[in-house]
Amino acid sequence: MMNVEEEVEKLKEEITRLGKVQTDGSYKVTFGTLFHDDRCANIFEALVGTLRAAKKRKVVAYDGELLLQGVHDNVEITLNHVPAAVN
């Protein structure tokens, strides 16, 4: 079982895979796209919980608190741009 940090990292990968890159380097994807993706369904036992944890860490942004499948399929989730670490 993954811990929350690992799940948030995986979520970032999946949003990058499924989302569209924006001019500022962030990625946008709808909740429905994430929710209905087979790979995401296999990775995340509780996608909504992972999204909430990621939002709390300011990794992602979206409107509302609790996202519900069907009701919130069109809600945009933004993966905030994280500048690459400079060595």
How would you characterize this protein structure?
InterPro entries: Costars, Costars_dom, Costars_sf. Belongs to the costars family. This is Costars family protein-like. The chain has 87 residues and is α+β, with helices and mostly antiparallel strands. A 4-stranded antiparallel sheet has the order 1-2-4-3. Strand 1 and strand 2 form a beta hairpin. Helix 1 crosses helix 4. The longest helix has 15 residues.
State the main characteristics:
single chain; 87 residues; alpha+beta; Costars; Costars_sf
The oligomeric state of the chains shown is single chain
Uncertain segments: none
- CATH architecture type: Orthogonal Bundle
String of helices and strands: HEEHHHEE
Compute the number of strand runs.
Answer: 4
* Rg measurement, Å: 12 Å
Supply the number of helical segments: 4
Strand order in space, largest sheet: 1-2-4-3
Helical content band: 40-55%
CATH homologous superfamily identity:
Costar domain
Mean pLDDT rating: 91
Identify the CATH class.
Answer: Mainly Alpha
Q: How many separate domains?
A: 1
What general form does the structure show? globular
